[in-house]
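Fold this sequence, please.
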Amino acid sequence: VELLQGENAVERLWENIIYTLSENGGEVMVTNVDEKDAVQESGGEIMEHLAQLKAHNITERLLSCEGDSNFIMPKECYRWISKEIFSSTSVTYIYENKVAYQLVANGLIILVHSNDAYLAEKKRFNYMWDNAQIPIEE
């Protein structure tokens, strides 16, 4: 387990994602995505991160709140989960044998290096993805 704290915690997580997946590419699954907040908080850094993902053949699937159409990735990367289960206080990143829990208000990310945790969260994510709503044009 690693604790990422402070102003650059998210950027350190992004570095870990690139480091972990850069050799063979892969997928990052993210729950409770709020792109509007992410862009405001990170400025241009998020666009650089997205360019790095593309350069290393890393894709994303993102679960955001029903009705939220603030997309910075192609629309097909998103599914909407209901407002009842969406949480703006916690974001989960799931990728190659790792799970990162971002506690937004605390400025803390708990990065778990565990294949078991990865497989459990991947299974949960895929269930939510399969049952989520495909975003419609607003």
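Helices lie at 9-21, 35-42, 45-55, 115-131. The chain has a mean pLDDT of 93.
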